[in-house]
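Example record for the data management plan.
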Amino acid sequence: MVMQKLRMATQLLHVAVELRLDLLRDNYKLPEYCELLELFGGFYWPLEDRLADTFATAVFDFDFARRRKAPFILEDLVRLGRDIPTLSGMNLCHQLPNVASVPRALGSTYVLEGATLGGQLLSKHFHQQLGVSAEKGGSFFLSYGDQVGPMWKAFGVVLTGYADLHPSDQDEIVDAAVETFQCLLDWADVRLAQTTPRANT
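Corresponding structural encoding:
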């Protein structure tokens, strides 16, 4: 039930993000790809920090540390020649979704985990466009490797299990997912306005 609610509530926002970032176009250049990684890094890094803090208070077993993807972004950027000692030195998003409660953290994580499914298609696209791979700047979009399906299903078990035990929290879960997409859209607008002219030079 909660998964269906989440899909319905976020479907249009999901499409809006894809259109805003135009990820599957055919003329990607490496500098633009690096800017894209920095855009995601600026969002994922601070958000994952907040999610980790909230999940540390959860009474159920959930290994969020295994699901963090910002380190892959840093690894990719370094391998592609970016001189970035840590992602904290990048431009970071400060308008983040409220993930201070466990249900809100689950709703936000739904968005990040769902992105790993689309990452499979994107990894193939960027490999064809730029030659990136898991070892050459493409580990973010391949963050779970061949475990994408099992990792998604495992998260679904955690999410639906919590929602079934706490039905009154389902609206909070959905609201956080919607807010996460909206914050990502807003952050994309900010970063693309800053970087697009430089990426095209």
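Summary line stored alongside the record: The chain has six helices and no strands.
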